[in-house]
Amino acid sequence: MEKTTLFDKIWDAHVVRSVPSGPDVFFIDKHFIHEVTSPVAFLNLEKRGVKVKYPHRTIATPDHNVPTVDQDQTIKDKLSRMQVEKLRENCKKYGIELHDLGSAHHGIVHVIGPELGITQPGMTIVCGDSHTSTHGAFGAIAFGIGTSEVEMVFATQCIMQSKPKKMRITVEGEIGPGVTSKDIILYIIAKISAAGATGYFVEYAGSAIQSLSMEARMTICNMSIEMGARGGLIAPDETTFNYLKGKQYSPAGEDWDKAVAEWSKLKTDDGAVFDKEYTFDAADIEPMITYGTNPGMGIKVLGNIPTTEGMEGSNKTSYLKSLDYMGFAPGEPVKGKQVDYVFVGSCTNGRIEDIRSVAAFVKGHKKADNITAWIVPGSKEVEKMAQEEGLVKILEDAGFELRQPGCSACLAMNDDKIPAGKYAVSTSNRNFEGRQGPGARTMLASPLTVAAVAVKGEICDPREVFQN
Amino acid sequence: MAYDKFTVLTSTAVPLPTENVDTDQIIPARFLKATEREGFGDNLFRDWRYDVEGNPKKDFVLNDPTYSGKILVAGKNFGSGSSREHAVWAIYDYGFRCVVSSFFADIFKNNCLNIGVLPVTVSPEFADKLLSAVTENPSTEIEVSIPAQTITLLSTGESESFDINSYKKDNMQNGFDDIDYLLNMESEIDEFEKTR
Ligand code: SF4
């Protein structure tokens, strides 16, 4: 029998029809929507006189644009309010399940899907948001789509897709102390560049990946898009099954056993061929941070910003433009640079484990005076756990401001903006110019590094700050 | 939504050699608050085009009256980042129908094809040639032909062919979109859904 990859198995099982010398008609099991990329799709649907075909396959939540304070009150910003109201209206009209602001499972779409057990191995999942790749951590094919495609899924539960090429990234060995899955993915992106996986779908494998918790795996898959990949996935295993067991939407009883039997088959065959392979040694990975304006511009926290040696033409101009935006010079170290804000949150690192690790590190410490520290849980559920576990108290004692769930300063569509020219060390996923507010300077790092920076007030290595 | 048919486009072009232009630059997140697809062209490259007071920045190419046209010749790795189709709406609404680069991000490319903006991938050498020809002589015309799958620098006659699958090619030439195709296979999809 032909040896196939995990990706092939799931993809091929979802092709309704292959268009000759064209794309595949690709069936979507689950569709997540939010307030920003859905209204125009709904509007166009209406113009065509078409209904949502399988409403039970779509799940909605408002996250991108919502305030992270006073969520029980009417949203002040008129345009945000209109988007959220449109989402409510449309969900009601078409019978779509909505996890609204303030409800028990409100949160960032990529946090609540897994939390509720909606995300399961072997599924195809899309959302009008590029970080849909997060759900790949469960051994699902999950990727972001544009609004036209959101409309297609509403109307037909299918989209037209050409099958991407396949890449495998293997990380072997043991991860060092103070190093997290965020560092692993920042390291990988720095190695293969922000465009290095464009045209590919990635499978992450190897002992270092297998050793990670589901939450840590989600952080890795989440950032697949930051190296240009459509998505990334990890073969499901005991860790996956244990995470899903007993979740609200997970199969139960006999169905559970059947599901686990099926899910256990979801692996890449030995000898299956990938279009491209990379292998990294976990021992080489240290705490990472970005210094530029794309996620591929990352170095060790203890490293120096690369010089322009070997660069020329528009490559060099673009590089210098990026450093100029950040206020950095080629060749200098980042350690010791003053920071103004820290942000813990987003679908990359806004889950309970992230908040636990920040709390464990800052316990008994205080944030530095020059730092404004925001912590934004990824969902209501995360917020609730953080309260019950006493983490909120620890964080507040350390001077962190805890806000309500949402995307918040990850993309700064609401009021959570980093002021122009200020430096933010952030657990989110994009350091693009202006991503966290016009003129904001973002450096991406792990929750541990962010905790250390909050305490020290400058760029530092968490291994030096928290020695015990 | 269906869009205007696209067969052969002959136009001057606007050069933007910056590499890794992400969708947050094409349209910053704070302009994604609309519930209708209107007016996005005004905010195309907003923060590169205007200062904080809203005054045009003179050194940005869209504010330079020397350059105009329906073709945007861009640097490498154009359109990375977010899946926001608003980025392509902004490009379309501003008046571009074709973006040329030696490398595009995937989702961006898909989004372009879905709304009738043609992404043309050329070799890095040809991209450089186009960029310098257009930059040096703003009246340089470029011809993009979907039927022939070629892009030609009319001043010198230099030409390159580009890839587009035959399904998308038909769509672009006829102004069709994928939904039309999918709606026509309703019963086939229904049958499939039952097995899931
Ligand atoms: S947290 Fe950031 S990356 Fe994640 S869905 Fe929200 S805006 Fe997108």
From TrEMBL, chain A:
Q: What is an annotated GO biological process for this record, any one?
A: L-leucine biosynthetic process
Pfam families linked:
Aconitase
Residue ranges of domain Aconitase/3-isopropylmalate dehydratase large subunit alpha/beta/alpha in the record: 8-457
**Which residues are noted in the entry as [4Fe-4S] cluster-binding?**
347, 407, 410
One GO molecular-function entry: 3-isopropylmalate dehydratase activity
Tell me the enzyme class.
lyase
Q: In which pathway does it act?
A: Amino-acid biosynthesis; L-leucine biosynthesis; L-leucine from 3-methyl-2-oxobutanoate: step 2/4
Main function: Catalyzes the isomerization between 2-isopropylmalate and 3-isopropylmalate, via the formation of 2-isopropylmaleate.
Q: What is this protein called?
A: 3-isopropylmalate dehydratase large subunit
Q: Which organism is it from?
A: Algoriphagus iocasae
Q: What is the lineage of its organism?
A: Bacteria, Pseudomonadati, Bacteroidota, Cytophagia, Cytophagales
TrEMBL record, chain B:
- Describe which pathway this protein belongs to, using the record's wording: Amino-acid biosynthesis; L-leucine biosynthesis; L-leucine from 3-methyl-2-oxobutanoate: step 2/4
Location of the Aconitase A/isopropylmalate dehydratase small subunit swivel domain: 5-124
- InterPro entries with a match to the protein in the record: 3-IsopropMal_deHydase_ssu (IPR004431), Aconitase/3IPM_dehydase_swvl (IPR015928), AconitaseA/IPMdHydase_ssu_swvl (IPR000573), IPMI_Swivel (IPR033940), LeuD (IPR050075)
Could you tell me the EC number(s) of this protein? 4.2.1.33
Q: Which GO terms describe its biological process?
A: L-leucine biosynthetic process
- Keyword tags: Amino-acid biosynthesis, Branched-chain amino acid biosynthesis, Leucine biosynthesis, Lyase
Q: Supply the enzyme class, top level.
A: lyase
What GO cellular component entries does it have? Answer: 3-isopropylmalate dehydratase complex
- Reactions catalysed according to its record: (2R,3S)-3-isopropylmalate = (2S)-2-isopropylmalate
Q: How does it assemble?
A: Heterodimer of LeuC and LeuD.
Role, per record: Catalyzes the isomerization between 2-isopropylmalate and 3-isopropylmalate, via the formation of 2-isopropylmaleate.
Family membership: Belongs to the LeuD family. LeuD type 1 subfamily.
* The name this protein goes by in its record: 3-isopropylmalate dehydratase small subunit
Q: Which organism is it from?
A: Algoriphagus iocasae
